[in-house]
Specification:
alpha/beta, Rossmann fold, 3 domains, 5-stranded parallel sheet, 3-stranded antiparallel sheet, 19 helices, 47% helix, flat, Origin recognition complex subunit 5, nucleus, nucleotide-binding, DNA replication origin binding, ATP-binding
Length: 433
């Protein structure tokens, strides 16, 4: 029995709509009730909010397209000023009907001009007999525009005296939108996060035709078991499901296991999912690079090239400066003579030194060091003779800008600037190689 029912639309259309928006039937049913029939006067403004990847944009686009309702869809991040936003609405409004020719671009400097041009566009497109929907995605950007833009959109139906509904889509609650001077209150609708059961149902719909639905559902269940605690983003989970499915199928393709042998399939895919979990959201490498690394590597747990942070390209002397800074941050000053001088003589190991060297300097964190100590270590570790030119000092400034070094204290100190090295030991090892 279909969950969506409305007398204005055919049952087959509603059934098709329901299949395209799984786990959002209650929200779609509420929107259908608010919209009513095409010629009926709808609510002036609707505010839809929910966390990222909860289906707000997709549901609105699918609903308006399947029911063939006249609408304008604008992303407020792309059109970040009021003039760009208003002009884009008018441009899309002109193209609502393919029968009429495109009119020339008309500049729209303020909301008064927009109301006048909006009335003309609606009359020319013969949209007066049905509701027109203006959907503003990422509507929180409206707060950065002029103070009259948001209240005017909420009262657009009243200002234009036309059957128009403004739909605001946002990730934040209405209380953070409401102006201090007050405004027309929109109808608010909340899109909750997808539960793990909803995610299982949605992701399982995309199973490849060459494998059974149960086999792919078992794979999705394993994927969610690993990633659900760290990632609830549907788009990210869809990306991970597509990316790792070929590795999950390897034992079945090679004949080592069948589709029901979940234990072997799990042992094969587990190292890859754990490695992918370390880089979730980061997109350190492309999908094609990930798949190529999976095919080329013999040991799945040792996938190379996944940490882009250890492969930063730096100038020649910047690498030596960073190594010298790391040595200066984590080695005591008294050890410089022992490490960097060839004929340093005997160093007596006193009880004081033994007591303090028991604690690892890596656990204590980096220590600040002066500029002259950094340059002294640099001269000792570089084979060639390095002149203290402006090029060297500019590279130190660049390392501070890249946040690989941090300047400690004030610039007006008499003894010169002091720095700290902020990179890890693995980073330095990769640079040193």
């Amino acid at each position: 029995m279909p969950n969506l029912e409305h007398p204005a639309y055919p049952a087959a259309t509603l059934l098709h709509l329901e299949s395209l928006v799984p786990c959002r039937e209650s929200q779609v049913s509420m929107l259908l009730s608010i919209f009513g029939e095409r010629q009926q006067l709808s609510f002036p403004s609707i505010f839809i909010y929910g966390h990222t990847s909860s289906g707000k944009t997709y549901v609105m686009q699918t609903l308006l397209n399947i029911l063939q309702l006249p609408h304008v869809f604008v992303n407020c991040v792309e059109y970040f000023t009021s003039r760009l936003l208003l002009e884009e609405i008018l441009i899309q409004l002109q193209s609502c009907s393919s029968e009429t020719e495109q009119t020339s671009h008309v500049p729209c400097d303020n909301f008064n001009d927009f109301v006048r041009l909006f009335k003309q566009a609606v009359a020319s497109q013969e949209l007066e007999g049905q509701t027109l929907y203006i959907v503003l995605d990422r509507a929180e950007q409206l707060r950065e525009m002029e103070a009259n833009v948001l209240p005017a959109f909420l009262r657009l139906q009243e200002l234009t005296d036309r059957n128009v509904t403004v739909v605001l889509l946002s990730e934040i609650v209405w209380e953070l939108f409401r102006p201090n001077t007050g405004c027309f209150e929109p109808f608010t609708l909340y899109f909750p996060d997808y539960s793990i059961g909803h995610l299982q149902k949605i992701l399982s719909q995309n199973h490849p035709p060459e494998y059974s639905a149960d086999f792919y559902a078992a794979y999705i269940n394993i994927l969610l078991g690993v990633f659900y605690m760290v990632c609830r983003d549907l788009k990210e989970l869809q990306h991970l499901a597509v990316l790792n499915f070929s590795k999950y199928c390897e034992p079945v393709v090679s004949g080592e296991a069948n589709e029901r042998d979940t234990r072997k399939l799990w042992k094969n895919i587990e190292p890859h999912l754990k490695k992918a979990m370390q880089t979730v959201y980061l997109r350190e490498i492309s999908s094609s690079q990930w798949e190529r690394l999976q095919r080329e590597d013999g040991e799945p747990g040792q996938l190379k090239g996944l940490s882009a942070h250890t492969h930063v390209e730096l100038p020649y002397y910047s690498k030596f400066l960073l190594i010298a800074a790391y040595l200066a941050s984590y080695n005591p000053v008294r050890t410089d003579k022992r490490f960097f001088l060839k004929h340093h003589g005997k160093i007596r190991k006193t009880n004081f030194m033994k007591k303090h060297e028991k604690t690892s300097n890596h656990l204590l964190g980096p220590k600040p060091f002066p500029l002259d100590r950094l340059l002294a270590i640099l001269y000792s570790i570089v084979d060639n003779r390095v002149a203290p030119t402006a090029n060297i000092f500019s590279q130190i400034t660049s390392l501070v800008t890249l946040q690989l070094l941090t300047m400690v204290g004030h610039n007006d100190q008499l003894d010169g600037p002091r720095y700290k090295c902020t990179v890890s030991l693995d980073f330095i090892r990769a640079i040193a190689r």
